[in-house]
Amino acid sequence: MVSYLVTGAARGLGLAFVQKLVALPAEEVCAVFATARTPSPELQELVKQSSGRVVIIKLEVTDEASIKQAAVEVEKKLGGKGLDVLINNAGVCQYTMDGVKSMDDLEHSFSVNVLGVHWVTRAFIPLLQKGTQKKVISISTTLASITLARAAHVSPAPAYKITKAAMNALTVQYALDYEKEGFTFMALSPGWLKTELGGGDMADLTAEEGAALSLDIIRGPARGLNGQFPKIYLPGWENTRHQYDGSNAPW
What is the top-level taxon of the source organism (predicted)? Predict the structure, then answer.
């Protein structure tokens, strides 16, 4: 039985992760800690239907005190057991239509997308060290790829790209520090999703599709994924614009 913690679980991809995880048999997923600044009605309904397997934990990723308190609450709920999988999903994306020169959201984006991931990961490392899987997945995007920057330039979200690239670098540093302990840290690209963050109906996939395909990787064998930047695999989409071919995206 595996335990999960998902940040930013009130809506979008985070909510879809919780939905997909709790739909799995209890013998496979014993607990899902769904963290959010403010729980949504949809998340609260999932709790009611989960037979106790979904637990809402209040957590604000830009507030270290909130994160530390959340870690204490999760530890109590686990009753001496470790946390198996952490999914750093909470993120922010704002659009700057007049280009990088008018970007004024970099500090806030960095607080959420980089510092938030660092603070949450650091706070939950002790519980993950007691877990059986020791997986930390930080949700990224191929928009953060410096190699692919020219192709991604059409998307007017420079602060998002810059901070997700920094988050990718953070992921690699954690991967190197903890590889000897059997950890797997990865920056995972779930595809272009029809969420508020992702751009709505213009995108390729629903949040539910992105969550399901991401979980194929998250729940799969960990071998070779530490410090990597995998993309989802969707048959028939290998040669499309975003190439959902399961390969590692270039940094």
Answer: Eukaryota
